[in-house]
UniProtKB/TrEMBL annotation, chain A:
<protein>
    <submittedName>
        <fullName>TIGR00267 family protein</fullName>
    </submittedName>
</protein>
<feature type="transmembrane region" description="Helical">
    <location>
        <begin position="52"/>
        <end position="74"/>
    </location>
</feature>
<feature type="transmembrane region" description="Helical">
    <location>
        <begin position="24"/>
        <end position="46"/>
    </location>
</feature>
<feature type="transmembrane region" description="Helical">
    <location>
        <begin position="106"/>
        <end position="132"/>
    </location>
</feature>
<feature type="transmembrane region" description="Helical">
    <location>
        <begin position="170"/>
        <end position="191"/>
    </location>
</feature>
<keyword id="KW-0812">Transmembrane</keyword>
<keyword id="KW-1133">Transmembrane helix</keyword>
<feature type="transmembrane region" description="Helical">
    <location>
        <begin position="144"/>
        <end position="163"/>
    </location>
</feature>
<keyword id="KW-0472">Membrane</keyword>
From TrEMBL, chain B:
<protein>
    <recommendedName>
        <fullName>DUF211 domain-containing protein</fullName>
    </recommendedName>
</protein>
<dbReference type="InterPro" id="IPR003831">
    <property type="entry name" value="DUF211"/>
</dbReference>
<dbReference type="InterPro" id="IPR023129">
    <property type="entry name" value="MTH889-like_dom_sf"/>
</dbReference>
<dbReference type="Pfam" id="PF02680">
    <property type="entry name" value="DUF211"/>
</dbReference>
Length: 194, 89
């Protein structure tokens, strides 16, 4: 609880709470759409080998996670250093030992963690039906169709989350993000399908 | 043994944490501290404050450390009230 309060405090003084939230949604959306694209691609190519599909999707999920983590860390560390330098200049004092110094160190790591874990976790959730089927568990639908349903559901939920942040209709916002996903699926079918 | 009963400080701090959070953090240093914070001037990145702390025995060094932890800089001690052990006034 104390750690959580400390994290909230550091996010507040650096005003990065909204940045973390934005990174979570944007990269989560990236992860969900990438998985959706891969799974629809496998569906079109009528691939049968679940292990190959899982490995390909997992590889993409890990790459998305690493890309999210490293890019967010580098950009956020640079932003926090710049902000700290400006503040030190205004205060005419060294703030390394203060909460602002701590924030310049920890906030980029936290943002990187959120930015990297968001697409990874969402991708892993989407892959769950494939894993279950691979483990021999009976599913009501084919694993690829179930994975697409999970992906669409998660994309809808990300839209709902965005709607709540913006204070607009959650249903409208959820449907908007869902439409983006459906257009993506349609495009894949148009370009890849015969 | 003397104890510090009241101090008025001139402090410069960044906009964040805000005045409420800043005064709460200073009040947390002692069990009976009464903190009155007045924002004297607001600049682009900083705020100049007048911080009055009243308590039975103010630990000045701990207050100074709390201010530094919050990113503030103590510019001057403007008023002090100190009481000696035998002072009943």
């Amino acid at each position: 609880m104390i750690v959580l309060d400390q994290v909230k405090f550091l996010l507040r003084i650096t005003r990065t709470r909204d940045i973390v939230r934005r990174y979570f949604v944007v990269n989560g959306f990236d992860g969900a759409l990438t998985m959706l694209g891969l799974i629809v691609g496998f569906l079109i190519s009528a691939s049968e080998n679940l292990s190959i599909m899982i490995n390909a999707c997992l590889g993409a999920a890990i790459a998305l996670g690493m890309s999210g983590m490293s890019s967010a860390y580098m950009s956020e560390a640079a932003e926090r250093k710049r902000a700290l330098d400006k503040l030190e200049e205004a205060m005419v004092s060294d703030l390394q030992e203060s909460s602002h110094g701590k924030a310049a160190h920890w906030v980029p790591l936290l943002v990187a963690l959120v930015n990297g874990s968001s697409p990874l976790l969402i991708s892993l959730l989407i892959l769950t039906p494939l894993w279950l089927a691979n483990a021999g568990i009976e599913l009501p639908l084919s694993p690829l169709h179930l994975a697409i349903i999970v992906a669409l559901l998660l994309i809808f939920l990300l839209g709902v989350f965005l709607g709540r942040i913006a204070g607009i209709s959650w249903l409208r916002s959820g449907i908007q993000t869902l439409l983006v996903a459906l257009v993506t699926v349609l495009l894949i079918y148009l370009i890849e399908g015969d | 043994m003397e104890s510090v009963k009241r101090v008025v400080l001139d402090v410069l701090k960044p906009h964040q944490p805000d005045a409420l959070e800043f005064s709460k953090a200073i009040a947390e240093v002692g069990s009976d501290y009464h903190v009155t914070l007045t924002v004297v001037e607001v600049d682009k990145n900083t705020e100049t404050l007048q911080v009055e702390i009243v308590g039975s025995a103010i630990d000045f060094e701990a207050v100074q450390a709390a201010i530094a932890t919050l990113g503030g800089a103590l510019h001057s001690i403007d008023e002090v009230e100190v009481q000696s052990e035998n002072d009943t006034g």
